[in-house]
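Discussion board: Methods & Data

I've been asked by a reviewer to show the raw model output for two of the constructs in my manuscript, not just the figures. I'm not sure how much to include, so I'm pasting the format here to get opinions. Each protein appears as its amino acid sequence followed by a line of discrete structure tokens. Is this the kind of thing reviewers expect to see in a supplement, or should I convert it first? Here is construct A:
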Amino acid sequence: MTNETHSNDAAVRSPRVNFAKAAPKAFKALIGFDAAAREGLDPALVELVQIRSSQLNKCAYCLHMHTTDARKAGESEERLHMVAVWEEAAHFFSAKERAALALTEAVTLVSHGGVPDAVYQRAARHFDEPELARLLALIFMINTWNRIAISTGKVPGTDER
């Protein structure tokens, strides 16, 4: 395959389906699921989880959106730069945030060995059961949004919410 075949350049990419317009019932259901997942979770934690999953999935559209949202919510540039290396920069994040980021990685990369008991138990020590369920739902949701954005060719910096 040529480099052109793998190009992510929006200028050469063919237009793709607008998921929200083409499948409005499915899109509306996802919006509802997303809102339910976030309910009661710390907004800063929500953005950290969405940023980390988007990094792992290489979803530039979602990464741009969630780093922008995090900045607007008051997140520091320093912490945003450290999300990709959170384990090596542990002192930038609380124990609860680190547990959520570890769970985010395990669920996002589930095909690399599942969700280890130790990772799950670490999260369970920091989140009560309903909160842990919503955290898992949030992780499921951002992985879904990443796949939608990548599959439909969303262009980073063109937040279409």
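Construct B, same format:
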Amino acid sequence: MRTARLRTVHPVLWAGWTALAAGAVLCVLGWYGVSGERFAERQLPYLASCTVPGAALIVAGAVLLTHGRGALAAARVEELYGLLVAAEPADEGPGQQASAALAVSADRLMVPGGTLFHRADCPLVAGKAEAVPVDAKLVRSGELGPCPICEPAAADD
């Protein structure tokens, strides 16, 4: 159930692959030109006009690919977050808003070794056998933060 934005290839990725290919071609041309010249002063024009810009294009392509993949990953995370939090109950129509919060229990749980505390009916800990009641000392010391999904209120502390 992906959105149309995720199905299309990100234009930054195309630009990255194009820059990488052009840089590789320029580096090969520069190497070929340098290899045919015996004297260093005749090799410099090939270095200046092909090899150095080719290397710069390779670096730029790598940066563009990294940025494009990061943007694509961020879009996927947002889509998954939206599916997790904004899921409509089956009995409501498409035009109605959910009247209750996702998690409303006052009991707080945590997973041993975790960094967040949750309401007992939070979808991230509901049904997990390893979830244990929250130790108030961990919350007061700041070792545990509130879950961004169920948002246990500060008054629950």
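Answer (T.O., handling editor elsewhere):
This is acceptable in a supplement if you add a one-line summary per construct. For B, something like: Helices lie at 4-7, 11-35, 40-85, 136-141.
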